[in-house]
Design goal:
mainly alpha
């Protein structure tokens, strides 16, 4: 039963989210937490691992969640679930594209979807940011901890490096090394 549930949940995520893997993040968060497949902290770890590994984010996180919940077969079910809707939609779009590429309706839909995608990604950033910087709840005492300032520093340096077009692999690798170092120094608790 868990395999069907994984497949259907990720099929729904894949079918009703536009804008790529990051736009799926709020939907994935809601579904994973609602099914109690992971805590928010575990989900953030899933996101970090999924972002740090090769391949599309949505496929990686579906595979990771499926694997944690149902082993190898769970990973296969979740991955197929998230990929299948896109595959079907792309086949239909490719078949119909030439006939509708100049349609005002199609252009309008695409224009309307762009800001929604940005909003969904922004919402995911805020939710994950809250959990990373204020894991329990917002409190002024958090601002006095070394872990808050180290996490903020890593995030700021990563943003600056991203705007300077530093390769993402280098940013991720450097962040991992700094995180390991700070962990050994006891900053992360």
């Amino acid at each position: 039963m868990i395999y069907l549930e994984l497949f259907l949940t990720f099929f729904k995520i894949g079918a009703f989210t536009f804008g790529g893997g990051y736009a799926m993040l709020p939907f994935i968060q809601d579904e994973v937490l609602a099914h109690q497949w992971a805590s928010m902290d575990e989900l953030i770890n899933f996101v970090a691992v999924s972002e740090s590994t090769p391949g599309p984010f949505a496929v990686n996180i579906a595979t990771y969640v499926g694997s944690e919940i149902g082993g190898v077969f769970g990973a296969i079910c979740a991955t197929l679930g998230v990929v299948l809707p896109s595959f079907i939609i792309i086949l239909i779009v490719a078949k119909c594209y030439l006939a509708f590429k100049n349609s005002r309706l199609v252009k309008g839909v695409m224009t309307g979807l762009r800001p929604v995608t940005v909003g969904l990604i922004g919402g995911a950033v805020l939710t994950i940011g809250q959990t990373v910087f204020f894991p329990v709840a917002f409190s002024w005492s958090v601002l006095a901890t070394a872990s808050f300032w180290c996490a903020l520093g890593i995030a700021c340096v990563a943003v600056v490096m991203a705007f300077k077009k530093v390769h993402p692999i280098l940013i991720i690798s450097m962040s991992a090394v700094v995180g390991i170092g700070l962990g050994y120094c006891g900053v992360w608790g």
